[in-house]
């Protein structure tokens, strides 16, 4: 099969023929229809993350190269192992990629995404930048009907991450919600917040075109963070009291600082993005304002099913703005890095 592999960090992906895997026991082989191009793929390609105290290599987390990236995988079942149940050849499926060890405390309660020793597809094992992807167990598949397959791909990561962030922000009880970032995550977050909350949604970004897209998808107000009066404008839109919840899909020093500046007493701040860096934090303000600062990292399999059902009902509409062939995988990553993509890009192997 054709596959695009990261041979080593910061080197062009190698697109070549590799052996097509064949499933055994509980395994399932999926013919990839579409795979999302995610910022996490960029971090894998770049070899790590800016922690604020230095550069954390992905190899220190257990990543081994070469690896086929791509964790937002949707496709058609091509072959099944001898022990597979409930899944048949020809089924259209969405892959849950956040595969855990199955034994740790998180995995035992179904939170594979928070596993102590993750085996995520497209990170720790080969993913979907290929014509076929081998899924290690049929329980990580969800049948897809009634929605566009290309759009469904993003539900496994960007959609799932946004959904979990909105849920973790206790958004059903919040009135003023500030969302930082109108990229793929943020645009999905706006749709989800509009669908499951009654919040006054304020979207913040540096790009007017992306802000306008967010407004069309359900944001009530938009603020360009480059505006020197951005903090005052956000506070005014929150009736001067500040935001009940802040969801930061960028999670860079400037956005976190602005989020802390606009959050109200008892507010909830959810940090999602992996931009990296660090900030100086006024420690006394945390207890005095009784705010909660928390992280959100994708979601579990059941969250993905809930999100898939929202898409089937037409409540949310995943946005695919660019499509690439497998041979253009390097271009896709470069375009994402250069902020040339509105919504989500996919590769169609």
From TrEMBL:
The family this protein is said to belong to? Belongs to the zinc-containing alcohol dehydrogenase family.
Checking CDD domains in the record gives:
6_hydroxyhexanoate_dh_like
List, alphabetically, the PROSITE patterns matched. Answer: ADH_ZINC
For this UniProt record, the keywords arranged alphabetically read as follows: Metal-binding, Oxidoreductase, Zinc
The record places domain Enoyl reductase (ER) at 11-347
Any one biological process term the GO annotation gives = protein tetramerization
**Cofactor section:** Zn(2+)
Query: What name does the UniProt record give this protein?
Result: Zinc-dependent alcohol dehydrogenase
Q: Which GO terms describe its molecular function?
A: adenyl nucleotide binding; anion binding; oxidoreductase activity; zinc ion binding
């Amino acid at each position: 099969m054709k596959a695009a592999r990261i041979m080593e960090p910061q080197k062009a992906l190698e697109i070549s023929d590799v052996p097509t895997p064949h499933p055994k026991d509980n395994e399932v082989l999926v013919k990839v229809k579409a795979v999302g191009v995610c910022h996490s793929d960029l971090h894998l390609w770049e070899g790590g993350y800016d922690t604020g105290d230095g550069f954390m290599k992905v190899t220190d987390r257990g990543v081994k190269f070469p690896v086929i990236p791509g964790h937002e995988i949707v496709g058609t079942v091509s072959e099944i192992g001898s022990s597979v149940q409930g899944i048949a050849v020809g089924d259209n499926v969405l892959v849950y990629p956040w595969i855990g060890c199955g034994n740790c405390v998180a995995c035992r309660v179904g939170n594979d995404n928070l596993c102590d020793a993750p085996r995520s597809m497209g990170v720790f094992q080969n993913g979907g930048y290929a014509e076929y992807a081998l899924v290690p167990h049929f329980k990580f598949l969800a049948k897809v009907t009634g929605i566009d397959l290309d759009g469904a791909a993003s539900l496994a990561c960007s959609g799932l991450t946004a959904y979990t962030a909105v849920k973790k922000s206790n958004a059903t009880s919040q009135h003023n919600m500030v969302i930082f970032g109108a990229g793929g995550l943020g645009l999905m977050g706006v749709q989800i917040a509009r669908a499951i909350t009654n919040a006054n949604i304020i979207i913040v970004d540096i790009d007017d075109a992306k802000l306008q897209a967010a407004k069309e998808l359900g944001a009530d107000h938009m603020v360009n963070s480059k505006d020197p009066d951005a903090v005052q404008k956000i506070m005014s839109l929150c009736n001067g009291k500040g935001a009940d919840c802040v969801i930061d899909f960028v999670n860079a020093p400037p956005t976190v600082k602005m989020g802390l500046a606009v959050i109200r007493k008892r507010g909830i701040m959810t940090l999602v993005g992996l931009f990296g860096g660090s900030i100086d934090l006024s420690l006394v303000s945390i207890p005095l304002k009784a705010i909660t600062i928390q992280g959100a990292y994708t979601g579990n399999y059941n969250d993905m099913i809930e999100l898939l059902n929202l898409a089937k009902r037409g409540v949310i509409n995943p946005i695919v703005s660019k499509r690439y062939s497998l041979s253009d995988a390097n271009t896709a990553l470069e375009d994402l890095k250069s902020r040339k993509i509105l919504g989500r890009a996919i590769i169609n192997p």
